[in-house]
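WARN retry 2 of 3 for item q-0093 after timeout on previous attempt; input resubmitted unchanged.
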Amino acid sequence: MLDIYTLGEEILREKCKPVKVFDDALRLLIDAMFDTMEEANGVGLAAPQVGVDSRLFVLNIPDWGKGVFVNPQIIETSTELTCAEEGCLSIPGLWHDVERPESITVQAQDEKGKAFTLKADGLLARAIQHENDHLNGVLFIDRLEAEEKEKMERAWEKRQKRRKSG
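OK item q-0093 returned
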């Protein structure tokens, strides 16, 4: 299992570097990321969430399955927006509605470096956008109105204080 970095860790606010080498070390990282995500009951996990400065994330979406996205780029988004509750393994226990495009098209590479293009909507599109944000140093709370973001940050700080004192 890998450690999941949480709100306040610098790497979560950095733009990640592209993956250039597709080797056994990358595949081991991907396997460990899947194990860590599943252990934490998540549907997605990005490399910076486990302290790795690489443009990579993994997903396991109900009714879609598992996917690996290396060097992803969202190349198209729908004008239709949808609002749904999101949470994050890096901000455990906090949830908020986030508005995002309903459908997207993403280009990426798989764990072997093979390029692919995927059109996605619903939960899959939302998860891809959420994890792709991580690769650019953006957390879901950054997509909220300033007042709501502050409330979420205060709630997080309270939870951390309780954890440390309890």
